[in-house]
Amino acid sequence: MTAAFIGHRNIIPANIENELRKTVEQLISVGYNKFIMGAHGEFDKMALAVCRSVREEHPEIEIEVVLTNLEGRLKKDEYGYDPYHDVKTVIFDIEEVYYKQRIMASNRRMVDLCDTLICYVDTDLYYFQSCSKRVYNYAKRKGVNIINLYKI
């Protein structure tokens, strides 16, 4: 089974990493073996770090990072280091999507591929529609199981 991660670019609570770890470990205990996340923002970075850490005890899990352009892969050439050397990376077929909408398109595709969405989304945002909130609502309409760590 597959879990995906989406969340706001910035994270404030300090305890969210512990809750994220508990959630990932709980999903592994019930059969989840693939975790997909993007490459933008603090929540994505935290999800990747937690999954890498948990994989030390569960080497069978697969971690996949969704890139929205080749920039993430080109960092290897520019800096001599590949930040994704130990995980699978993919770029969904989104070249035709306006570049400012590529994160949204990739996040929706992750929702289409997952059984559970682990997120950090303020669902009470009334003053604007964040990308994360729109994808959260998309997952809700699709009936995807959602674990929202924002309220914890």
Explain this structure to me?
The chain has 152 residues and is an alpha/beta fold. The chain is 41% helix and 19% strand. The protein has five helices and six strands; from the N terminus they run βαβαβαβαβαβ. The protein has helices at residues 16-29, 41-55, 71-79, 102-113, 131-142; strands at residues 2-7, 34-37, 62-67, 88-91, 116-120, 145-148. Strands 4-3-2-1-5-6 form a six-stranded parallel beta sheet, with helices on both faces. α5 links the parallel β5 and β6 (145-148). The two termini are 24 Å apart. The mean pLDDT is 83.
Task: Compose a concise summary of this entry.
This protein is α/β, with parallel strands linked by helices. It contains 5 helices and 6 strands. Helices cover 41% and strands 19% of the residues.
